[in-house]
Amino acid sequence: MKVFGITGWKNSGKTGLTERLVAYFTAAGLRVSTIKHTHHAVDIDQPGTDSFRHRAAGAAEVILASDSRMVLMREARATPPTLEALIARLAPVDLVLVEGYKSAPHLKIECLRAETGQPPLYPQNDTICALACDQPQASALPQFSLDDTAGIAAFITDRLGIQGAR
């Protein structure tokens, strides 16, 4: 599977860009999965539900399945899962878009918004190969408007050698 990342600071436009890219690529006939990293504690389960009770009792993994969706919950009690381990659990697709994971080794585009007040990551991160920004940057990296979904998608498919996505 081909993997490409969308990275940047909080409120830099990562989620909006990821959402638009997923819609663009799927409309072009590609199968796309995403992985979203967060630094916040996450629990999609609710106290009192059967699946919550299974986890609370000590189950290492719980799958909650309906006719239209399934979710796998794995307790990471000892160590958080690596990005590689997460990718390995995905069903095969044409492209995996990874939001976050700033220091992982896959290629990334950095989202930059001046209003965040954060310094850019690209000067210290050589896995960033392009910028999606609201203001021009003093960089030789390819630069796109944050809203240039088609241009960014073309860059990603060209860079990864993915056919049939235009």
Summarize the structure.
This protein is an alpha/beta fold. The chain has 4 helices and 8 strands, in the order βαβαββαββββα.
Describe this entry's structure for a reader.
- The protein has four helices and eight strands.
- The chain has about 170 residues and is α/β, with parallel strands linked by helices.
- The chain has a single domain (about 1-40, about 80-160), classed as P-loop containing nucleotide triphosphate hydrolases (Rossmann fold, 3-Layer(aba) Sandwich).
- A six-stranded parallel beta sheet has the order 2-5-1-6-7-8, covered by helices on one side. Strands 3-4 form a two-stranded antiparallel sheet.
- A hairpin with a 4-residue loop joins strand 3 and strand 4 (about 70-75).
- Helix 1 packs across helix 4 (about 150-160).
- The radius of gyration is 18 Å and the shape is globular.
- About 25% of the residues are buried.
CATH 2nd-level architecture:
3-Layer(aba) Sandwich
H/E element sequence = EHEHEEHEEEEH
Structurally, how many domains make up the residues?
1
Report the mean per-residue pLDDT as an integer: 90
Strand content: 15-25%
Fraction of residues in H or I helices: 10-25%
- Count the beta strands: 8
CATH topology: Rossmann fold
Q: What multimeric state do the chains show?
A: single chain
* Distance linking N and C termini: 19 Å
Radius of gyration: 18 Å
How would you characterize the largest beta sheet?
6 strands, parallel
The side-by-side strand order for the widest beta sheet comes to 2-5-1-6-7-8
Q: What is the C-level CATH assignment?
A: Alpha Beta
How many DSSP helices? Answer: 4
Outline type? globular
Low-confidence stretches: none
